[in-house]
Design goal:
Oligomer: single chain
Shape: globular
CATH class of the largest domain: Mainly Beta
Largest sheet: 7 strands, mixed
Number of strands: 35
Structural class: mainly beta
CATH architecture of the largest domain: Sandwich
Number of domains: 3
CATH topology of the largest domain: Immunoglobulin-like
Helix content: under 10%
Protein backbone atom coordinates (compact mmCIF):
# COMPACT_ATOMS: atom_id res chain seq x y z
CA UNK A 1 0.00 0.00 0.00
CA UNK A 2 1.14 3.50 -0.71
CA UNK A 3 0.90 5.77 2.32
CA UNK A 4 2.19 9.30 2.83
CA UNK A 5 1.69 11.16 6.08
CA UNK A 6 -0.07 14.51 6.17
CA UNK A 7 0.21 15.36 2.49
CA UNK A 8 -1.81 18.16 0.97
CA UNK A 9 -5.46 17.35 0.34
CA UNK A 10 -7.91 18.74 -2.18
CA UNK A 11 -8.32 22.43 -2.73
CA UNK A 12 -11.92 23.51 -2.34
CA UNK A 13 -13.32 25.58 -5.11
CA UNK A 14 -16.08 23.78 -7.01
CA UNK A 15 -16.34 24.92 -10.59
CA UNK A 16 -13.60 27.49 -10.06
CA UNK A 17 -11.16 24.61 -9.65
CA UNK A 18 -11.82 23.30 -13.14
CA UNK A 19 -11.83 26.76 -14.70
CA UNK A 20 -8.56 27.75 -13.03
CA UNK A 21 -6.91 24.50 -14.11
CA UNK A 22 -8.05 24.93 -17.70
CA UNK A 23 -6.82 28.52 -17.85
CA UNK A 24 -3.23 27.47 -17.17
CA UNK A 25 -3.04 24.61 -19.65
CA UNK A 26 -0.61 25.00 -22.52
CA UNK A 27 -0.07 22.90 -25.63
CA UNK A 28 1.51 19.49 -25.21
CA UNK A 29 4.43 18.22 -27.20
CA UNK A 30 6.06 14.92 -28.06
CA UNK A 31 9.44 14.04 -29.45
CA UNK A 32 11.35 10.97 -30.59
CA UNK A 33 8.42 9.05 -32.09
CA UNK A 34 9.69 5.54 -31.32
CA UNK A 35 13.06 3.88 -31.58
CA UNK A 36 16.38 5.71 -31.73
CA UNK A 37 18.23 7.31 -28.85
CA UNK A 38 16.61 8.93 -25.83
CA UNK A 39 15.53 12.61 -25.91
CA UNK A 40 18.00 15.10 -24.52
CA UNK A 41 17.95 15.70 -20.76
CA UNK A 42 16.36 13.71 -18.00
CA UNK A 43 12.56 13.54 -17.88
CA UNK A 44 10.61 14.36 -14.72
CA UNK A 45 8.98 10.93 -14.86
CA UNK A 46 9.70 7.71 -16.72
CA UNK A 47 7.18 4.96 -17.39
CA UNK A 48 8.52 1.67 -18.72
CA UNK A 49 5.90 -0.68 -20.18
CA UNK A 50 7.05 -4.28 -19.75
CA UNK A 51 5.94 -7.72 -18.51
CA UNK A 52 5.56 -7.96 -14.73
CA UNK A 53 4.45 -10.53 -12.18
CA UNK A 54 1.81 -9.77 -9.55
CA UNK A 55 1.85 -11.84 -6.36
CA UNK A 56 -1.77 -11.69 -5.22
CA UNK A 57 -0.83 -14.18 -2.51
CA UNK A 58 1.89 -16.79 -2.04
CA UNK A 59 -0.03 -19.40 -4.01
CA UNK A 60 -1.31 -17.12 -6.75
CA UNK A 61 1.22 -15.26 -8.89
CA UNK A 62 0.10 -13.99 -12.27
CA UNK A 63 1.89 -12.52 -15.29
CA UNK A 64 0.72 -9.34 -16.98
CA UNK A 65 2.07 -6.06 -18.42
CA UNK A 66 2.64 -3.12 -16.09
CA UNK A 67 4.63 0.06 -15.49
CA UNK A 68 8.08 0.21 -13.92
CA UNK A 69 7.98 -3.42 -12.82
CA UNK A 70 4.72 -3.21 -10.87
CA UNK A 71 0.96 -3.25 -11.29
CA UNK A 72 -0.38 -0.79 -10.37
CA UNK A 73 2.39 1.53 -11.49
CA UNK A 74 3.94 4.19 -9.26
CA UNK A 75 1.87 7.04 -7.82
CA UNK A 76 2.88 10.14 -9.79
CA UNK A 77 2.60 13.39 -7.85
CA UNK A 78 2.55 16.56 -9.94
CA UNK A 79 1.93 20.23 -9.24
CA UNK A 80 -1.02 21.84 -10.95
CA UNK A 81 0.05 24.13 -13.79
CA UNK A 82 3.75 23.16 -13.61
CA UNK A 83 4.80 21.58 -16.89
CA UNK A 84 6.44 18.15 -16.68
CA UNK A 85 8.09 15.76 -19.10
CA UNK A 86 7.30 12.06 -19.16
CA UNK A 87 9.38 9.46 -21.00
CA UNK A 88 7.40 6.38 -21.97
CA UNK A 89 9.48 3.35 -22.94
CA UNK A 90 7.67 0.43 -24.55
CA UNK A 91 9.50 -2.84 -23.92
CA UNK A 92 6.70 -4.96 -25.40
CA UNK A 93 6.09 -6.30 -28.90
CA UNK A 94 2.91 -4.29 -29.50
CA UNK A 95 2.19 -0.55 -29.94
CA UNK A 96 0.96 1.20 -26.80
CA UNK A 97 -0.76 4.37 -25.59
CA UNK A 98 -0.82 6.07 -22.18
CA UNK A 99 -3.98 8.05 -21.39
CA UNK A 100 -4.02 10.73 -18.66
CA UNK A 101 -7.55 10.22 -17.38
CA UNK A 102 -9.25 13.35 -16.01
CA UNK A 103 -6.61 15.80 -17.25
CA UNK A 104 -7.41 18.78 -19.48
CA UNK A 105 -4.77 18.19 -22.14
CA UNK A 106 -4.41 18.69 -25.91
CA UNK A 107 -5.59 15.69 -27.95
CA UNK A 108 -2.12 14.73 -29.15
CA UNK A 109 -1.01 14.24 -25.54
CA UNK A 110 -4.23 12.76 -24.16
CA UNK A 111 -3.22 9.28 -25.23
CA UNK A 112 -5.90 7.89 -27.56
CA UNK A 113 -5.47 6.80 -31.16
CA UNK A 114 -8.93 8.15 -32.04
CA UNK A 115 -7.86 11.68 -31.07
CA UNK A 116 -4.62 11.44 -33.05
CA UNK A 117 -2.17 10.75 -30.24
CA UNK A 118 0.90 8.95 -31.60
CA UNK A 119 1.44 5.31 -30.74
CA UNK A 120 4.51 4.31 -28.75
CA UNK A 121 6.13 1.80 -31.08
CA UNK A 122 7.14 -1.70 -29.94
CA UNK A 123 10.56 -1.41 -28.28
CA UNK A 124 10.40 2.34 -28.86
CA UNK A 125 10.16 5.39 -26.66
CA UNK A 126 8.52 8.77 -26.72
CA UNK A 127 8.74 11.89 -24.60
CA UNK A 128 5.58 13.79 -23.68
CA UNK A 129 5.25 17.27 -22.22
CA UNK A 130 2.11 18.02 -20.29
CA UNK A 131 0.76 20.64 -17.92
CA UNK A 132 -1.08 18.83 -15.09
CA UNK A 133 -4.52 19.96 -14.12
CA UNK A 134 -6.98 20.35 -12.65
CA UNK A 135 -5.90 19.53 -9.11
CA UNK A 136 -7.07 16.29 -7.56
CA UNK A 137 -7.01 12.54 -8.03
CA UNK A 138 -6.40 11.54 -11.66
CA UNK A 139 -4.98 8.34 -13.13
CA UNK A 140 -3.07 6.99 -16.10
CA UNK A 141 -3.70 3.81 -18.04
CA UNK A 142 -3.32 2.19 -21.43
CA UNK A 143 -5.89 3.09 -24.06
CA UNK A 144 -5.07 0.29 -26.50
CA UNK A 145 -7.96 -1.68 -27.94
CA UNK A 146 -8.19 -5.32 -26.88
CA UNK A 147 -11.11 -6.76 -28.88
CA UNK A 148 -10.99 -10.55 -28.28
CA UNK A 149 -7.47 -10.52 -26.79
CA UNK A 150 -7.79 -10.56 -23.00
CA UNK A 151 -4.04 -9.95 -22.64
CA UNK A 152 -4.30 -6.43 -24.13
CA UNK A 153 -5.60 -3.03 -23.15
CA UNK A 154 -7.16 -2.42 -19.76
CA UNK A 155 -7.21 -6.17 -19.02
CA UNK A 156 -3.46 -5.83 -18.32
CA UNK A 157 -1.83 -4.20 -15.29
CA UNK A 158 -1.16 -0.90 -17.08
CA UNK A 159 -2.71 1.58 -14.64
CA UNK A 160 -1.61 3.90 -11.86
CA UNK A 161 -2.59 7.00 -9.87
CA UNK A 162 -1.71 10.59 -10.66
CA UNK A 163 -2.24 13.08 -7.86
CA UNK A 164 -2.16 16.72 -8.95
CA UNK A 165 -1.38 18.97 -5.98
CA UNK A 166 -3.10 22.35 -6.01
CA UNK A 167 -1.15 23.80 -3.08
CA UNK A 168 -2.42 25.71 -0.07
CA UNK A 169 -4.29 22.81 1.55
CA UNK A 170 -4.29 22.28 5.34
CA UNK A 171 -3.74 18.50 5.25
CA UNK A 172 -5.99 17.68 8.20
CA UNK A 173 -5.35 13.95 8.16
CA UNK A 174 -2.68 11.56 9.40
CA UNK A 175 -2.38 9.03 6.58
CA UNK A 176 -3.01 9.16 2.85
CA UNK A 177 -3.69 5.93 0.94
CA UNK A 178 -4.03 5.21 -2.78
CA UNK A 179 -6.16 2.08 -3.24
CA UNK A 180 -7.11 0.67 -6.64
CA UNK A 181 -9.95 -1.85 -6.99
CA UNK A 182 -8.92 -4.44 -9.54
CA UNK A 183 -9.98 -7.68 -11.23
CA UNK A 184 -7.56 -10.09 -12.91
CA UNK A 185 -7.45 -13.15 -15.16
CA UNK A 186 -10.49 -12.21 -17.29
CA UNK A 187 -12.39 -14.83 -19.24
CA UNK A 188 -15.27 -14.92 -21.71
CA UNK A 189 -18.62 -16.05 -20.36
CA UNK A 190 -22.14 -16.47 -21.66
CA UNK A 191 -23.69 -15.48 -18.32
CA UNK A 192 -23.07 -12.34 -16.28
CA UNK A 193 -24.57 -12.19 -12.77
CA UNK A 194 -23.90 -8.64 -11.66
CA UNK A 195 -25.04 -8.63 -8.04
CA UNK A 196 -22.97 -5.55 -7.26
CA UNK A 197 -24.86 -3.21 -9.62
CA UNK A 198 -27.39 -1.35 -7.48
CA UNK A 199 -28.99 0.60 -10.35
CA UNK A 200 -31.52 -2.13 -11.20
CA UNK A 201 -34.16 -0.86 -8.76
CA UNK A 202 -34.26 2.64 -10.25
CA UNK A 203 -37.23 4.19 -12.07
CA UNK A 204 -36.19 2.61 -15.45
CA UNK A 205 -37.12 5.77 -17.38
CA UNK A 206 -35.54 4.52 -20.61
CA UNK A 207 -36.73 0.92 -20.64
CA UNK A 208 -38.07 0.17 -24.15
CA UNK A 209 -41.67 -1.08 -24.34
CA UNK A 210 -40.45 -4.10 -26.32
CA UNK A 211 -37.15 -5.74 -25.39
CA UNK A 212 -34.80 -7.57 -27.74
CA UNK A 213 -34.90 -11.17 -26.53
CA UNK A 214 -32.06 -12.46 -28.73
CA UNK A 215 -29.37 -14.26 -26.69
CA UNK A 216 -26.52 -12.05 -25.54
CA UNK A 217 -23.06 -12.40 -26.97
CA UNK A 218 -20.09 -13.28 -24.82
CA UNK A 219 -19.20 -10.91 -21.98
CA UNK A 220 -15.98 -10.67 -19.96
CA UNK A 221 -15.94 -11.89 -16.36
CA UNK A 222 -13.46 -12.47 -13.56
CA UNK A 223 -13.19 -14.44 -10.34
CA UNK A 224 -9.86 -13.00 -9.19
CA UNK A 225 -9.67 -9.65 -7.39
CA UNK A 226 -7.37 -7.43 -5.38
CA UNK A 227 -6.89 -3.99 -3.92
CA UNK A 228 -3.70 -2.72 -5.52
CA UNK A 229 -1.56 -5.83 -6.01
CA UNK A 230 -2.71 -7.97 -3.07
CA UNK A 231 -5.73 -10.17 -2.48
CA UNK A 232 -7.59 -9.93 0.83
CA UNK A 233 -5.55 -11.54 3.63
CA UNK A 234 -2.25 -11.32 1.79
CA UNK A 235 0.50 -8.81 2.46
CA UNK A 236 0.64 -6.23 5.21
CA UNK A 237 -2.54 -4.71 6.63
CA UNK A 238 -3.22 -1.00 6.68
CA UNK A 239 -2.09 -0.04 10.19
CA UNK A 240 -3.89 2.77 12.00
CA UNK A 241 -4.23 4.23 15.47
CA UNK A 242 -7.39 5.23 17.28
CA UNK A 243 -8.15 8.90 16.68
CA UNK A 244 -6.35 9.10 13.36
CA UNK A 245 -7.95 10.61 10.27
CA UNK A 246 -7.16 8.65 7.11
CA UNK A 247 -7.62 10.05 3.61
CA UNK A 248 -8.26 7.28 1.07
CA UNK A 249 -8.14 7.83 -2.67
CA UNK A 250 -10.20 5.01 -4.18
CA UNK A 251 -10.02 4.08 -7.87
CA UNK A 252 -12.02 1.50 -9.77
CA UNK A 253 -9.34 0.32 -12.20
CA UNK A 254 -11.48 -2.54 -13.47
CA UNK A 255 -11.92 -3.10 -17.19
CA UNK A 256 -15.06 -5.11 -16.52
CA UNK A 257 -17.35 -4.02 -13.67
CA UNK A 258 -18.71 -1.27 -11.45
CA UNK A 259 -18.11 -1.96 -7.74
CA UNK A 260 -19.40 -0.99 -4.28
CA UNK A 261 -16.96 -0.96 -1.35
CA UNK A 262 -17.15 -0.30 2.39
CA UNK A 263 -14.91 -0.23 5.47
CA UNK A 264 -16.65 -2.41 8.04
CA UNK A 265 -17.44 -0.62 11.29
CA UNK A 266 -16.71 2.85 9.88
CA UNK A 267 -18.30 5.71 7.97
CA UNK A 268 -16.74 7.01 4.76
CA UNK A 269 -16.95 10.78 4.39
CA UNK A 270 -16.99 11.50 0.66
CA UNK A 271 -14.89 14.61 -0.01
CA UNK A 272 -14.37 14.43 -3.77
CA UNK A 273 -15.63 12.58 -6.85
CA UNK A 274 -13.21 11.99 -9.73
CA UNK A 275 -10.75 14.22 -7.87
CA UNK A 276 -13.11 17.22 -7.73
CA UNK A 277 -14.28 18.47 -4.30
CA UNK A 278 -18.02 18.02 -3.81
CA UNK A 279 -20.17 20.95 -2.66
CA UNK A 280 -21.77 18.84 0.10
CA UNK A 281 -19.54 16.12 1.66
CA UNK A 282 -21.52 13.16 2.99
CA UNK A 283 -20.81 10.39 5.51
CA UNK A 284 -21.88 7.05 4.04
CA UNK A 285 -21.66 3.37 4.91
CA UNK A 286 -20.38 2.44 1.44
CA UNK A 287 -19.43 4.03 -1.89
CA UNK A 288 -20.13 2.95 -5.47
CA UNK A 289 -17.54 3.37 -8.23
CA UNK A 290 -18.07 2.83 -11.92
CA UNK A 291 -15.11 1.61 -13.94
CA UNK A 292 -12.73 4.56 -14.21
CA UNK A 293 -14.27 6.57 -11.35
CA UNK A 294 -12.44 7.84 -8.27
CA UNK A 295 -13.86 8.64 -4.83
CA UNK A 296 -11.85 10.39 -2.10
CA UNK A 297 -13.04 9.60 1.42
CA UNK A 298 -11.97 10.73 4.87
CA UNK A 299 -12.29 8.13 7.64
CA UNK A 300 -12.27 8.79 11.38
CA UNK A 301 -10.55 5.83 13.02
CA UNK A 302 -12.84 5.62 16.04
CA UNK A 303 -13.72 1.90 16.30
CA UNK A 304 -10.68 -0.13 17.45
CA UNK A 305 -10.38 -3.64 16.11
CA UNK A 306 -9.32 -5.44 12.97
CA UNK A 307 -11.63 -4.74 10.05
CA UNK A 308 -12.01 -5.41 6.33
CA UNK A 309 -12.15 -2.70 3.68
CA UNK A 310 -13.53 -4.39 0.60
CA UNK A 311 -16.27 -5.19 -1.86
CA UNK A 312 -19.77 -5.49 -0.45
CA UNK A 313 -20.56 -8.51 -2.64
CA UNK A 314 -19.60 -11.58 -0.61
CA UNK A 315 -18.28 -13.72 -3.48
CA UNK A 316 -16.16 -10.88 -4.85
CA UNK A 317 -14.73 -9.99 -1.45
CA UNK A 318 -13.90 -13.61 -0.64
CA UNK A 319 -12.21 -13.86 -4.04
CA UNK A 320 -9.75 -11.15 -3.04
CA UNK A 321 -11.36 -7.72 -3.27
CA UNK A 322 -10.37 -6.36 0.11
CA UNK A 323 -7.63 -5.34 2.51
CA UNK A 324 -7.31 -5.67 6.29
CA UNK A 325 -7.32 -2.51 8.42
CA UNK A 326 -5.65 -3.13 11.78
CA UNK A 327 -5.65 -0.80 14.78
CA UNK A 328 -2.50 -0.66 16.93
CA UNK A 329 -2.60 -3.28 19.67
CA UNK A 330 -5.42 -5.26 18.05
CA UNK A 331 -4.69 -8.80 16.87
CA UNK A 332 -8.04 -10.59 16.43
CA UNK A 333 -9.40 -12.01 13.18
CA UNK A 334 -10.58 -9.42 10.63
CA UNK A 335 -14.30 -8.62 10.83
CA UNK A 336 -16.80 -7.78 8.11
CA UNK A 337 -20.24 -6.25 8.66
CA UNK A 338 -22.59 -5.83 5.71
CA UNK A 339 -23.48 -2.15 5.25
CA UNK A 340 -27.11 -1.13 4.76
CA UNK A 341 -28.30 -1.49 1.16
CA UNK A 342 -28.85 2.08 -0.01
CA UNK A 343 -29.03 3.11 -3.65
CA UNK A 344 -26.03 5.19 -4.80
CA UNK A 345 -27.11 8.77 -5.42
CA UNK A 346 -24.73 11.34 -6.91
CA UNK A 347 -27.19 14.14 -6.20
CA UNK A 348 -26.70 14.08 -2.40
CA UNK A 349 -23.25 15.64 -2.96
CA UNK A 350 -24.63 18.56 -4.98
CA UNK A 351 -25.62 22.10 -4.18
CA UNK A 352 -28.95 23.82 -4.52
CA UNK A 353 -27.99 25.78 -7.60
CA UNK A 354 -25.37 25.84 -10.32
CA UNK A 355 -22.69 28.51 -10.58
CA UNK A 356 -22.22 27.72 -14.26
CA UNK A 357 -23.95 29.32 -17.21
CA UNK A 358 -27.24 27.91 -18.45
CA UNK A 359 -26.77 25.38 -21.27
CA UNK A 360 -27.27 26.88 -24.71
CA UNK A 361 -27.65 23.65 -26.67
CA UNK A 362 -28.70 20.08 -25.92
CA UNK A 363 -27.13 16.90 -27.28
CA UNK A 364 -29.17 13.73 -26.98
CA UNK A 365 -27.35 10.39 -27.09
CA UNK A 366 -29.26 7.10 -27.11
CA UNK A 367 -27.41 3.92 -26.09
CA UNK A 368 -28.56 0.55 -27.41
CA UNK A 369 -27.26 -3.01 -27.51
CA UNK A 370 -27.56 -5.50 -30.36
CA UNK A 371 -27.17 -8.93 -28.70
CA UNK A 372 -24.61 -10.94 -30.63
CA UNK A 373 -24.38 -8.16 -33.21
CA UNK A 374 -20.59 -8.42 -33.45
CA UNK A 375 -20.26 -12.13 -34.09
CA UNK A 376 -19.58 -13.77 -30.73
CA UNK A 377 -19.98 -10.43 -28.97
CA UNK A 378 -22.60 -7.75 -28.46
CA UNK A 379 -22.59 -4.62 -30.60
CA UNK A 380 -23.15 -1.25 -28.94
CA UNK A 381 -24.83 1.69 -30.65
CA UNK A 382 -24.83 5.44 -30.03
CA UNK A 383 -27.77 7.10 -31.80
CA UNK A 384 -28.34 4.00 -33.88
CA UNK A 385 -24.75 3.44 -35.00
CA UNK A 386 -21.55 1.85 -33.70
CA UNK A 387 -18.31 3.83 -33.87
CA UNK A 388 -17.26 5.63 -36.06
CA UNK A 389 -19.73 8.49 -36.42
CA UNK A 390 -19.09 10.98 -39.19
CA UNK A 391 -19.37 14.59 -38.03
CA UNK A 392 -22.44 13.87 -35.93
CA UNK A 393 -21.19 15.49 -32.71
CA UNK A 394 -19.72 18.88 -33.64
CA UNK A 395 -19.16 21.46 -30.90
CA UNK A 396 -18.91 25.23 -31.15
CA UNK A 397 -16.13 26.66 -29.03
CA UNK A 398 -17.36 28.50 -25.95
CA UNK A 399 -20.88 27.09 -26.08
CA UNK A 400 -22.35 25.49 -22.96
CA UNK A 401 -23.91 22.09 -23.76
CA UNK A 402 -26.27 19.77 -21.96
CA UNK A 403 -25.52 16.15 -22.86
CA UNK A 404 -28.50 13.89 -22.16
CA UNK A 405 -27.61 10.18 -22.11
CA UNK A 406 -30.53 7.76 -22.66
CA UNK A 407 -29.49 4.24 -21.64
CA UNK A 408 -31.83 1.76 -23.33
CA UNK A 409 -29.76 -1.26 -22.30
CA UNK A 410 -29.74 -3.67 -19.38
CA UNK A 411 -26.30 -2.53 -18.15
CA UNK A 412 -25.15 0.44 -16.07
CA UNK A 413 -22.54 2.22 -18.18
CA UNK A 414 -19.65 4.33 -16.80
CA UNK A 415 -19.43 7.02 -19.50
CA UNK A 416 -16.25 9.07 -19.85
CA UNK A 417 -15.60 12.22 -21.88
CA UNK A 418 -11.93 12.93 -22.51
CA UNK A 419 -10.31 16.35 -22.07
CA UNK A 420 -13.35 17.96 -20.41
CA UNK A 421 -15.04 18.08 -17.02
CA UNK A 422 -18.81 18.02 -16.82
CA UNK A 423 -21.29 19.10 -14.17
CA UNK A 424 -24.00 16.61 -13.27
CA UNK A 425 -27.45 18.11 -13.77
CA UNK A 426 -29.82 15.12 -13.59
CA UNK A 427 -29.93 11.42 -12.75
CA UNK A 428 -33.21 9.67 -13.61
CA UNK A 429 -35.16 12.91 -13.34
CA UNK A 430 -33.58 14.02 -10.06
CA UNK A 431 -31.92 17.42 -10.45
CA UNK A 432 -28.62 18.51 -8.94
CA UNK A 433 -25.78 20.98 -9.50
CA UNK A 434 -22.17 21.58 -8.57
CA UNK A 435 -20.95 17.96 -8.86
CA UNK A 436 -17.98 17.94 -11.25
CA UNK A 437 -16.90 14.65 -12.83
CA UNK A 438 -15.22 13.15 -15.84
CA UNK A 439 -16.99 9.75 -15.63
CA UNK A 440 -20.65 9.15 -14.80
CA UNK A 441 -22.49 5.84 -14.41
CA UNK A 442 -25.69 6.02 -16.46
CA UNK A 443 -28.12 3.68 -14.67
CA UNK A 444 -29.64 0.49 -16.00
CA UNK A 445 -32.47 1.53 -18.37
CA UNK A 446 -31.92 5.04 -16.99
CA UNK A 447 -30.99 8.56 -17.91
CA UNK A 448 -28.27 11.01 -16.94
CA UNK A 449 -27.67 14.60 -18.00
CA UNK A 450 -24.41 16.54 -17.69
CA UNK A 451 -23.41 20.08 -18.63
CA UNK A 452 -20.04 21.11 -20.04
CA UNK A 453 -18.47 24.04 -21.86
CA UNK A 454 -16.73 23.39 -25.16
CA UNK A 455 -13.43 24.98 -24.13
CA UNK A 456 -10.89 22.32 -25.15
CA UNK A 457 -10.58 22.50 -28.97
CA UNK A 458 -9.67 19.37 -30.89
CA UNK A 459 -11.00 15.85 -30.98
CA UNK A 460 -12.44 14.47 -27.73
CA UNK A 461 -13.29 10.79 -27.27
CA UNK A 462 -16.53 9.79 -25.53
CA UNK A 463 -16.95 6.16 -24.53
CA UNK A 464 -18.09 3.54 -22.05
CA UNK A 465 -15.20 2.72 -19.72
CA UNK A 466 -15.89 -1.03 -19.83
CA UNK A 467 -13.22 -2.21 -22.25
CA UNK A 468 -15.32 -4.70 -24.21
CA UNK A 469 -18.18 -2.23 -24.70
CA UNK A 470 -15.78 0.44 -25.99
CA UNK A 471 -14.05 -2.03 -28.32
CA UNK A 472 -17.33 -3.14 -29.88
CA UNK A 473 -18.81 0.18 -30.90
CA UNK A 474 -19.61 2.08 -27.69
CA UNK A 475 -17.74 5.30 -28.40
CA UNK A 476 -17.96 8.51 -30.40
CA UNK A 477 -15.74 11.46 -31.28
CA UNK A 478 -16.67 15.03 -30.43
CA UNK A 479 -15.23 17.53 -32.91
CA UNK A 480 -14.98 21.32 -32.83
CA UNK A 481 -16.34 23.33 -35.73
Amino acid sequence: MSAVNRRSFLRLGGLALAQAGAARLGPGMQSNPGGGGPPEGKADFTLRIAPVTVELDRSHILSTVGYNGTAPGPVLRMREGRRVTVDVINDTDTPELVHWHGMLLPPEVDGTEEEGAPLIAPHGRRRFELTPGPAGSRWYHTHAMAMDDLHRGAYTGQFGFVYVDGGGDPGHYDQELFLAIRDWEPFFTGTMDDEDDDTHDGPLLEKPPTLNTDPDGLEVGSMTYSINDRALGSGDPIRVREGERVLIHLLNASAIENRRVALAGHKLKVMALDGNPVPTPQELDSVFLGAGERVDVLVEMNNPGVWILGGTEKATRESGLGVVVEYAGQHQSPRWIDPPKVRWDYTVFGSGSSNAQVPQQTLDMVFEKIPGGAGKFNLWLVNGKPYPHQNEFVLERGVRYRLVMHNRTDDAHPMHLHRHLWELSEINGKKTAGVLKDTVVVPYFGRAAVDFTADQPGLALFHCHIQQHMDYGFKALFRYS
